[in-house]
């Protein structure tokens, strides 16, 4: 996908965030974006870096509340190693991290194992890191099978709904983590606006830059057999 096409989507997103009364970037629009993405190497890497940057953005929440929780950092590290084509990273290792992430995102997600207190925003951070790894490893459309077929767009829920589910993208989870509280997934509109503004103005161009640099640095082609599908 060309820079011009990506930029057109970015401006659509910007207008949608500004127009929404609570500054959500609705999941149906992001669903259409993922469906529109080309399956070329640059675009796959762009999606991967965009997910990684979103997940990294909210890691300080985890550091403040559950600093001993290592799994999200392992997931992000695996993302970066995949994007950098680390030959020492084995697929079995990635599968093991994904499996740990899947099992860690259940009932006790976001819990402080010392005090037994569950933090909603920490749970969203953990889920964002897990989804980032899925996207980098080849999850092209995070909203596939998100709702029953034929569900009208106006009946799709906002991102608070997806925060702890196995569907939905990294960016949506990170947006919830950045704007919700320790006791509720309900998002503060101004903090949500701040996240999406950062995502569009900072993360988006960085992801384009990193994707382009990666293609040049590693000399990968669209038919590289080691590139995640």
From TrEMBL:
Pfam families: Imm5
InterPro entries xref list: Imm5 (IPR025675)
Immunity protein Imm5 domain residues: 12-205
Protein name (database record): Immunity protein Imm5 domain-containing protein
Source organism of the structure: Deinococcus arenae
Lineage, highest ranks first: Bacteria, Thermotogati, Deinococcota, Deinococci, Deinococcales
